[in-house]
Design brief:
about 350 residues, alpha/beta, Nucleotidyltransferase, domain 5, 2 domains, five-stranded mixed sheet, 11 helices, 10 strands, about 40% helix, about 15% strand, binds 5'-O-[(R)-(carboxyoxy)(hydroxy)phosphoryl]adenosine, binds zinc ion, iron, metal-binding
């Protein structure tokens, strides 16, 4: 049937996730495993990630079906994240998804991971009345940092992006310098909340420059230099608790300032947008959300971000993107079975 539930798989990085959504976007089941195996390595190891996806996916699919009290024969389509991401995990996720769809004789919908983040703002309940096109998407995660004009379904224009590190990468690296755990973003935000963001003068990369590209590597280096110059650290020790908190807060303030400047420029390039959307793991950052809320309000625009658990990688956004894609395919009379052969 065309209007039944969609099972979705996300495996492009280190999260292995499965979700089942009703055609109206209601989440019927959600299973997510973060691969803590990476912890001892201080980052994602692609080979470990791919093996873990393969190991966990079949069980997660079964658990999701149980949770939704559905059988595979109730499914109307299967979707999987098909990139960009780590190739091993993507192959595992799309092979499992495609195999399941083929066995069941239902459409397989390949979903672009960035498109899934973009459309997550249109999930029911995120924006009152549904997020209208066109809107500006700020995608800030561990792997991405870019401004995308979302003009409509399948109509995306990249307005600018990072010329070096992704925003989350910068958070993770600075967190590591400060001796915090991995992933560093949430730990750094927590530490920053106890600190004074004006204590250390750090650069705002590219602020005031034309365009809306981002840069974080100079800021990261500036933090490293500031840290190395602290008296206790120069003597071979660690920063004091207040120095560490103030440095974290100053870094977070610099990121907020730089990102707000860049996003402001992107909004200038998109005068017809009435909504600013942030997605990706770093969009979970409260300080950044407040900056973006203020930026949007000053221009008479709305700001929206998915709930925290849907900012980081998840399968719900993949399922929702598939629902939108299937809906449009049907509306335009295309065969949903041919979706996986269409270049997107
Ligand atoms: O979207 P995501 O789960 O995975 C990627 O596609 O990369 O994003 C993960 C990134 C990590 O770098 C993590 O440190 C960062 O998002 N992050 C945060 C926060 N929560 C997660 N960064 C800053 N503040 C947070 N609260
Ligand atoms: Zn992502």
């Amino acid at each position: 049937g065309s209007g039944g539930p969609v099972l979705a798989i996300e495996s492009s990085c280190d999260e292995t996730a499965v979700a089942i959504l009703a055609p109206d976007g209601t989440v019927l089941a959600e299973r997510l495993l973060s691969q803590l195996d990476h912890l001892p390595f201080g980052g994602v190891v692609p080979e470990i990630a791919a093996r873990a996806h393969l190991w966990h996916l079949p069980a997660l699919v079964e658990q999701a079906l149980d949770q939704a009290a559905l059988r595979t024969s109730d499914l109307a389509a299967v979707a999987a994240s098909c990139g960009p991401g780590l190739i091993g995990g993507l192959i595992v996720g799309s092979s499992v998804g495609k195999g399941l769809a083929l066995t069941l004789g239902i459409p397989f919908v390949p979903v672009n991971h960035i498109e899934a983040h973009a459309l997550s703002a249109r999930l029911p309940g995120v924006v009152d009345g549904g997020a209208p096109f066109p809107f500006l998407l700020l995608l800030v995660s561990g792997g991405h940092c870019q401004c995308v004009a979302v003009d409509g379904l399948g109509r995306y224009r990249r307005l600018g992006g990072t010329i070096d590190d992704a925003a989350g990468e910068a958070f993770d690296k600075v967190a590591k310098m400060l001796g915090l755990g991995w992933p560093g973003g949430p730990a750094l935000e927590k530490l920053a909340s106890q600190g004074d963001g004006r204590r250390y003068d750090l650069p705002r990369p590219l602020k005031g420059r034309p365009g809306c590209d981002f840069s974080f590597s100079g800021l990261k280096t500036a933090v490293a230099q500031k840290l190395a110059s602290l008296p206790g650290v120069r003597e071979g020790g660690t920063p004091t608790a207040s120095e560490a908190a103030d440095l974290a807060a100053s870094f977070q303030a610099a990121v907020g300032d730089a990102v707000a400047d860049r996003v402001g420029r992107a909004l200038d390039m998109m005068p017809d947008a009435t909504l600013l959307v942030a997605a990706g793991g770093v969009a979970a950052n409260g300080a950044l959300r407040r900056r973006l809320t203020d930026l949007a309000a000053a221009r008479g625009l709305r700001f929206a971000a998915p709930p925290l658990r849907l900012c980081t990688d998840n399968a719900v956004m993949v399922g929702w993107a598939a629902i939108e894609i299937l809906r449009e395919a049907r509306a335009s009379g295309r065969d949903p079975d041919g979706l996986d052969t269409l270049p997107r």
